Amino acid sequence: MLTARRRVMATAAAVLCGTLLLASCGGSDSGSSDGKTLRLWHYEGPDSAMGLAWNAAIEEFERTHPGVEVKFEEKGFEQIQKTAPMVLNSGDAPDLMEYNKGNATAGLLSKQGLLTDLSAEAAERGWDRKISASVRTTSQYDARGVMGSGKWYGIPNYAEYTMVFYNKDLFEKHGVAEPRTFGELTAAMDAFVDKGVTPLANAGAEYMAQQYLYQLALSRADRGWVDSYELYQGKSDFHDAAWTYGAETFADWVRKGYISEKSSGTKAEDAGVSFIRGESPILFSGSWWYGRFVAENKFDWGTFLWPDSAMTLGSGGNLWVVPKGAANKDLAYDFIDITMSRRIQNLLGNKGGVPVAADPAAITDPRAKGLIENFNTLAERDGLAFYPDWPVPGFYDVLVSETQKLITGDATPDAYLDAVQKAYDKGVPKT
Amino acid sequence: MSAVRRPAGRPRSAVLSRYPVLVALAVGALFMVLPFLIVAVNAVKSPAEYSAGGPLSLPDGLYLDGLKDFWERVDFGQKLLNSVLISGSVAVLAVVLSVLNAYAIGIGRIRGRAWVLAFFVLANTLPQEALVYPVYHLSKEAGLYDTRLSVVIVFTVIQAAFGTYLLAAVLGRFPREIVDAARIDGANAWQVLWRIVVPVSRPTLGVLLVFFFVWTWNEFLLPLVMLISNDNQTVSVALGVLQGQRLMDATMTNAAALLGVLPAIVFFLVFQRTLTRGIAVGAVK
């Protein structure tokens, strides 16, 4: 009796095991160059401006390409970051995917020969004319994989830039005038400090603190300074006027209480939430917050560009890239073309994104209009200065920890600049 | 977890020592349960409530859209199926493989078993990051890249390495008289294994099965690298979809975490009795 039961169990286990194995063999469909499917990957949330615009683009594509099926898969940012070189080197590469811009990502893949050169398509379809100069920087990579010149390997649909978000209700409540110049900004921050409110939301453990500092330096810099820092077109001296001003002013602001000393360990999410909850009157950060603020802020708020600075942080957004092994490249080009069309670009703008080629007149939402007009102002004066952590691999962590020391007072501005110079010189590619 | 030890024969000190232990256990349990509670609370909160009140505030009502949206967004049913398929296959196969290995080492006492065991320990200490590229290349050559089978094979081997090491130690102390008695009765090696060793060690094997299942369920890196198509992905990889480049959706991430961990907990509770039966082989009956 017992043995019989056991035998039944054993057989059942064997059968289960066998079916599991068989089932797990199940197919992976590799790309086929039948021109009937477009395999598309991106990692934007379905409710984000990009997600909404690209869904519309997929519909448009299927309408204009009858009989072609778009097989879209939403990926995680981390998965693409970690696995892109492996996927692109296998037979399972998609026809078109979103990929992070920059030397360490798109630049590296282009150097390894895993991306398709889009120069001819960009010229023929006019993408290059739609994309302004400082946005274009992250689309082109030279033979070393360094951005700024060379062939086109990616097309951005959107851009990003930093701005001052401010809580109008809090300004009114504390009787502080809304600033338009740098002098008025510091005066407003003084007024808040007098009322016992820390004016600036900051996140010392993440990108925000270094972006404040870089913005301060940028207000004393020009395009040549940025090009030598970001694109290695010359030598960067961190003890020059701009960097020194940036580091000293930042340290000074912590001392004056504009930035909380306690913010050395906070995350960007914390800073954003403190703005949403109406605790911080001012947040200086990127357009990526815009959609969330529209959805969650329960007070009147506005944005303006960093006052009295020709340049601010920002760049083209993530890129559409066509893998070298893509099976249906022509379909991929057609899809990019649709995403660059006025209709999709305007939709992206109306949903709170920063389109690269929209018609400002077609943007109906007044706040979104302001967002895009500010961007167009920047694009016209070639004012996108990228991000401080770009030039050197691993520089982000150096900047975070050094800026933390500046906040806690463990390092003087001079020591800060020395440390950053050392890390920069060590990591900058030798030519 | 049975950490309470009663010093036999000294009732007074037993009473005295019992309360501190109880308090310590209660505090320990609180620490274990608290993160889970926070996840559960935030999973049913709306994003606006989260932004307004932070992670520790209590929600006004049940907000189940986060759970529902996540389920639909990643086709969670399919991910569950994949995870069950992979973890189930790995658990069964790894236990079978471990038993066969450990039988040879622990009871068969093959020559050089110390070296073999040392090799298995080494395999255990290898970080998975080091395996990523070799496994990627091998599976690509074998045409198994982006199949669930590749992950099953890799994890069967990884889990069996640990299982072999543990079971070999357990079977090394297996009562010889039982084996000898069976031999005298005319049982061959195969019969000794299936009729004697496996039934007697069943509690240990059950524990291993549960552990292998839960461990494989929670694996992230290798499934992330090996399972490219969304149709093949596991639950833990699907959770990664929500981590954006700069923004995170805290409430939906919590909802996803809750959905991701529930099946493992259910599995754990179902097999809990197997676990409490202990990891040691039963004595001579």
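qc> Chain B has two domains: 11-65, 74-276.
qc> done
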